[in-house]
């Protein structure tokens, strides 16, 4: 009986941790657009909590920089919920050129759209 109890206690402390979640997007606040974009980083460009541009590397891996206007007078205009981590950006991002990616950035993760109905 002692051996069974000892083995049970050992099993509690030797359990493998669950697999790590994929890293989520983080926010980096800048006054100018950076020359090199880091993967899984949403850059908010502006000053004093007033952001006029959001920039990120296309998550499909094509290497393109995606620039999203955030000024209220621009059309279209994107908004960021939780300007700190993890970010949510809306509306969806739908590229009409090159890779034609269509996705949301929600709670720091990319949610891919399968068709044009998810705007």
Brief summary of the model shown:
With 119 residues, the protein is mainly beta.
Tell me about this structure.
The chain is mostly beta strands. 10% of the residues lie in helices and 37% in strands. The chain is built from one helix and eight strands; from the N terminus they run αββββββββ. It has a four-stranded mixed sheet, with no helix packed on it. Strands 5-6-7-8 form a four-stranded antiparallel sheet, with no helix packed on it. The longest helix is centred in the first third of the chain and has 12 residues, at 2-13. The chain is elongated, with a radius of gyration of 20 Å. It starts with a helix and ends in a 7-residue tail after the last strand. The mean pLDDT is 85.
- DSSP summary, beta strand count: 8
The helix content is 10-25%
Rough outline: elongated
Main sheet summary: 4 strands, mixed
Going by helix content, strand content and strand pairing, the class is mainly beta
Q: For the largest beta sheet, what order do the strands appear in spatially?
A: 1-2-3-4
Number of helices: 1
N-C termini distance: 61 Å
Task: Write down the overall mean pLDDT.
Answer: 85
Order of helices and strands: HEEEEEEEE
Segments where pLDDT lies below 50 for 5+ residues?
none
Rounded radius of gyration (Å)? 20 Å
- Beta percentage is 35-45%
């Amino acid at each position: 009986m002692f051996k069974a109890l000892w083995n049970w206690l050992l099993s509690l402390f030797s359990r493998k941790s669950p697999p790590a979640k994929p890293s989520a997007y983080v926010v980096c606040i800048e006054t100018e657009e950076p020359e090199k974009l880091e993967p899984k980083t949403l850059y908010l460009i502006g000053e004093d909590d007033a952001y006029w541009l959001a920039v990120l590397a296309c998550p499909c891996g094509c290497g393109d920089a995606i620039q999203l206007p955030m000024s209220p007078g621009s059309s279209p205009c994107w908004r960021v919920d939780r300007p700190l981590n993890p970010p949510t950006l809306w509306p969806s991002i739908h590229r009409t050129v090159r890779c034609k990616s269509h996705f949301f950035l929600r709670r720091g993760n990319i949610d891919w759209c399968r068709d044009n109905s998810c705007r």
